[in-house]
Structure formats: C-alpha cells, structure tokens
Amino acid sequence: MKRKLALLTLAGALSVPMVAAEFITIGTGSVTGTYYPTGGAICQMVNKNKKETNIRCSVESTGGSVYNVNTIKAGELDFGISQSDTAYQAFKGEGKFQGAAAVPELRSAIAIYPELLALVVSQKSGIKSITDLKGKKINLDSPGSGTHMTADLVFEAFGIKASDLALANELKVSEGPTMLQDNHIDGYFFVAGHPTANIKDAANSVDISIVPIDGPQIDVLLKKYPYYAKGIISGSYYKGVPNDVPSIGVKAVLVTSTKVKDEVVYQVVKTILDNFEKFKELHPSYKTITKESLLEGLSIPQHPGAIRAFKEAGILK
Ligand code: GLU
C-alpha cells in the first residue's frame, strides 16, 4: 500500500500518465521467422517501462499476417505484425478480406523494416525461375500467412494455378527447411526480413538456391499493386546463395485497431522511438531503417496514438 502510494506520488511528480494496468499482446509469426524476434524486441523495451506506463507486453507466435489482422478484428490481439500488402487489402476489403471479412478498424503504428519474397528451392530441383514451378512440389505457407497471399498474387501474375503444381502444400513455413531436407518438397515461399533463421536453417542442411522474382510479369504486377516494390536479397546472407537475388517486397508493419487506446499505442511507439538506436542493433533486418523510414510504406491510416508519438519526436510535422 505504502509502495503504491509512493509510486503514485512519484508518478504525479514526474507527471507520468498512470493508466490502469494494460496487458497487450503482439501477434507475430513462426519462431524461426523475423516477426517473432521483432515482437520480442518491442515487448522487451515496453516492459522495461512498465512501472511508469503500467503496460505489460507479451508476444504470441502465430501463422503470420492474415491471422494477426483477423485476430485483431476479433479483439483477441491488440497489436500484430503484418505485411503492408495484407494490411492494405484487409483495410480496403479486397482479396480474401471482401465483405464482412474487411477490417476497416485496422490502423498502422510503424512500418518497421522491409520484407522480401524468397522462393527457397533445393539446387537439385533445377528450379531457376517461377515458370519452372509447374509439376513441382511447393509449400505456400499456411492460409493465415501473408506469404501465401503474396505467393498467390505472383502465381496470378505468371498465370500459374495451384493445380499446375505436383503438390501445393499449405503447411507452416517453419516446416519448410525440414520438408526440403526430407525431399517432401522442391521449394517453399517465405516473405520475411532477411537474413532470417528459417532460411539459414535450410541453407545449412540442404544445398539451396533462391529463385529470382523478376521479368515482365512482375512489372505488370507492380503496376497493378503499387504497394509492392523491387528489392534485392543480398548474396551475403545465405550459404549457397553467393549472388544478390532480385525480388519484390513489402514492409513489415506494426498494426493495431481503432479500439486500442491512444495512450497505449502512444506509449508503445514512443518506447520504440526513444530506444531506436538500441532497437536497430537487435536484428540484421533493421540495418537500413531510420526513424523517418518507419513512416514509409504504412499502407493504411496511422493510429492517433502513433501520430502523437511521431509528432512529439519531431519526425512528423
Ligand atoms: N511475412 C510473413 C507472413 O506474414 C511472416 C514473416 C516472419 O515471420 O518474419 O506470413
């Protein structure tokens, strides 16, 4: 009781807003991906301030973007990490989010880092381009992933149907490296921040290649869906992949809902901005990010709490 009083007095003296205890959960992806350690890094920073903010953060490993966005809609997650293409379609009610599945209450907080589509194949599969996929065994990731959604659009651009494949698996991307090693598949898709532990695991157990995602079909796709951008998966990241690989990418966006309090979103974003230099060191995917780039590629409107934090930090005018 005494301690509580002392804390309250201290909070008053420092004019720290005391909100009632808030327990927030961030939906991420599989544990060997990049979302999971990113959610962990954010929660760790948020929890360091829990005495002042009364916000306690925990991370959940999930199937990925589509699951996260749908679960935010259901009110069971407060935050999630989502590909910017998934967030855009959910907000607008396009693709698999049509009609009642739309998530107009979805809001962005920050656009954390770039993600690039990797088509990881075994060298012995002989797959050198997307057009070689016909008759091959490919894992597309689970239907709750953003990866599956992006892979579907790439297939559409190349006029490939799932039925053109010998096997179109929809298992979690975490199974990809083992399935490749056991010859159950010839390759798998993963949209991630690179380098990611999942693909390192695959590269360390099988001779892999990463297939270039380019050509006139991709130029058409980029015109149709302007939230994709060209990018390069560096030749320095994975064993067996010595050259840069062209691909397309999105942003990994921290998303939330209009139903989450301004003060909570404000504190989470403020914590990231206040500890930005330390945050940047936590994963190689953050190498090129800047405080300004956190506002690039948000793809959906920003939550008012996030806007307040960026304005206070002088990044948003
Ligand atoms: N972008 C992936 C997805 O939404 C997840 C990436 C990750 O786990 O790092 O399916």
Automatic annotation (TrEMBL):
Pfam families: NMT1_3. It comes from the Bacteria. The keyword Zinc does not apply. InterPro entries: TRAP_TAXI. The keyword Membrane does not apply. Keywords: Receptor, Signal. Coiled coil: none annotated. Residues 1-20 form the signal peptide. PANTHER family: SLL1037 PROTEIN. This is TRAP transporter solute receptor, TAXI family.
